[in-house]
Specification:
16% strand, alpha/beta, 2 domains, 393 residues, Rossmann fold, 12 strands, binds 5-phosphoarabinonic acid, 5-stranded mixed beta sheet
């Protein structure tokens, strides 16, 4: 369950214009890229994902996911909530494609030498340089130990329904493949096979994720309130939003949030610059600036109340964490760094689905309030085409 607190640590308030709100909701519904809202995944697709995930789990020690940006961040963020360098999934899941580091790739080659591997390459466009390059490298490596026929069982492609190199390859080689729907862009693609397949391979409960997601899509009023408050803060020269968490396993989720808001709003010279901190660690570094530095920041705190706890003497560790969060919000508010607080009772798949849908809606509403297109990323496209002029693969 999620709770939103838009008032306790906030001296800024919004008057919602109901006609503008209705117009914006209609714009969302009518947008051709609003599949994340209008066309939520159906049962048949969920069943296929779960069936293939089970086969993968029985067929490998290591599952390699190759993707970047919106084709990477959400499943990676959720993986990091439930698994760590101490607690690993079975099969182990390794991500590639987010950099061009030979050092890391060589480490992976060495690591998988004696292990059975299945690869899932994920790219909606099928043309992203990092993905095509690293995918080719992995394929060459796997060809050293698997016959073409065996390899065919070990490559899974997730891409557009009919466009791009990857779709061509999937059709030609007969690889198992999944579709990222045309009306869903990368950062809005949590409830597509791009993320659901890796999560299902980790044996995480994607049905609960979907249940929470649908709940989040119904929280239109709260999402619109949050978006409107963000814009009000921006008008009051709060140009940076710090997403602050007190649970380290949410760190990569704040990376996903940064991408969601940054790529959706940050265009035409507009937008709030998203950053993130993990507390209590960062109270001892960036906390000073956030509270008393250049006064251009506000915070959105994502708090986990937690039912599982550690008792230290008579103290509850969760309670101390909560009290520190409260104390920090009060101290920051005193220095005119206001906070919005989103609380969830636990880190579980339902709450994550709920929060993610809520944040997607908020990002869309904020973008419309800034009068920018939430669904494109013209800057990213420009740099991609500049790369293509320089590197041919
Ligand atoms: O959100 C987005 O649209 C981007 O971050 C893309 O997901 C990213 O650039 C990767 O694109 P693709 O899936 O086409 O390889």
């Amino acid at each position: 369950m999620l709770k939103f607190d838009f008032t306790t640590y906030m001296n800024y308030h919004v008057n919602i214009d109901s006609i503008q709100k209705q117009t914006i909701i209609e714009s969302l519904k009518n947008n051709e890229m609003a599949g994340f809202f209008n066309n939520v995944i159906n049962e048949e697709s969920m069943t296929k994902i779960k069936t293939v995930a089970k086969q993968i789990r029985n067929n490998c020690d290591v599952f390699i996911v190759i993707g970047i940006g919106g084709s990477f961040m959400a499943s990676y963020a959720i993986k990091n909530m439930f698994f760590s360098h101490i607690k690993k999934s079975t099969p182990e899941v390794i991500y590639l494609g987010t950099d061009l580091s030979s050092k890391y790739l060589l480490e992976v080659f060495d690591y998988i030498k004696d292990k059975d591997v299945v690869v899932n390459v994920i790219s909606k466009s099928g043309t992203t340089l990092e993905i095509n390059l690293i995918y080719n490298a992995i394929k060459e490596e796997l060809q050293k130990k698997y016959s073409q026929e065996e390899l065919r069982k070990r490559i899974i492609i997730t891409t557009d329904i009919d466009k791009g190199k990857l779709r061509e390859e999937a059709n030609k080689e007969g690889y198992t493949s999944f579709v990222i729907p045309t009306d869903i862009g990368g950062r809005y693609s949590l409830m597509t096979p791009a993320h659901l397949l890796p999560l299902a391979v980790m044996n995480l409960d994607i049905d609960s994720l979907l249940e929470g997601y649908k709940l989040g899509l119904s929280q239109i009023d709260d999402a619109y309130h949050y978006a409107s408050l963000r814009i009000e803060l921006f008008k009051n020269k709060k140009y940076i939003e710090n997403f602050s968490v007190y649970e380290p396993s949410l760190y990569y989720y704040t990376e996903w949030i940064k991408q969601l808001f940054g790529e959706s709003e940050g265009k035409d010279g507009k937008g709030i610059f998203p950053v993130s901190t993990v507390n209590t660690r960062d109270l001892h570094s960036l906390g000073q600036f956030i509270q008393q530095g250049n006064n251009i920041l506000f915070e959105t705190v994502i708090e986990v109340l937690n039912t599982k706890d550690v008792k230290i003497g008579k103290q509850s560790l969760n309670n101390v964490n909560h009290l520190v969060r409260e104390a920090v919000c009060v101290a920051h508010a005193k220095d005119n760094t206001p906070s919005i607080v989103i609380s969830m009772d636990n880190i579980d798949m339902k709450n994550i689905g709920n929060l993610s849908a809520f944040l997607m809606l908020s990002a869309v509403f904020s973008s419309y309030l800034f009068e920018v297109n939430p669904f494109n990323q013209p800057g990213v496209e420009t740099y991609k085409s500049e790369i293509k002029k320089r590197v041919q693969i």
